[in-house]
Design brief:
- The protein has a single domain, classed as 2-Layer Sandwich (Alpha-D-Glucose-1,6-Bisphosphate, Chain A, domain 4), CATH 3.30.530.20.
- The longest helix has 28 residues.
- It is globular and about 40 Å long.
- Helices cover 32% and strands 31% of the residues.
- It contains four helices and seven strands, in the order βααββββββαα.
- A seven-stranded antiparallel sheet has the order 1-7-6-5-4-3-2.
- It is an alpha+beta fold and 140 residues long.
- Belongs to the AHA1 family.
- Pfam families: AHSA1.
- This is Activator of HSP90 ATPase.
């Protein structure tokens, strides 16, 4: 996904939970730093996940385990545009199970990238993560 912002800004949107919560999860326990384990929370669904941070290369790359490896690559296209590529890999199970996991992961990360783009380029919070599975929302 091409995002019309400098690479460091886009990178920071995924490293800094105060920004990431604007387009992905509800809250995070801290910034992504190599060797750390952070918790991400989706309050609307009542779930959380622990994420192990493997690699953080400012403005260039992030690698986590969640539970399988996920890699973000940030490639500047100009001073004000960045191509973001997210690759999830290491799926296990039968061929059908691996295919299903890969398709599910791709769909989720498409929402995340679209939400990030809208927020960084236009300041709009689209609520894509909550709204794509509205039947799973926990209402109190």
């Amino acid at each position: 996904m091409l995002i019309r912002r400098p690479a460091l800004d886009v990178f920071d949107a995924f490293v800094n939970p105060e920004i990431t919560r604007r387009f992905w999860f509800s809250s995070g326990s801290g910034p992504l730093e190599p060797g750390k384990v952070v918790s991400w929370h989706w309050d609307v669904y009542g779930i959380s996940a622990d994420v192990r941070v493997l690699v953080v290369e400012p403005g260039a790359r992030i690698v986590i385990e969640w539970p399988t490896p996920v890699e973000w690559e940030f490639t500047p296209q100009s001073a004000d545009t960045t191509m973001v590529n997210i690759t999830a890999f290491g799926f296990t199970g039968t061929d059908a199970e691996r295919a299903s996991s890969a398709i599910d992961s791709m769909g989720g990360f498409c929402y995340v990238l679209a939400g990030c783009k809208a927020f960084l380029e236009h300041g709009i919070e689209l609520n894509l993560i909550a709204d794509h599975a509205a039947d799973a929302i926990i209402y109190e």
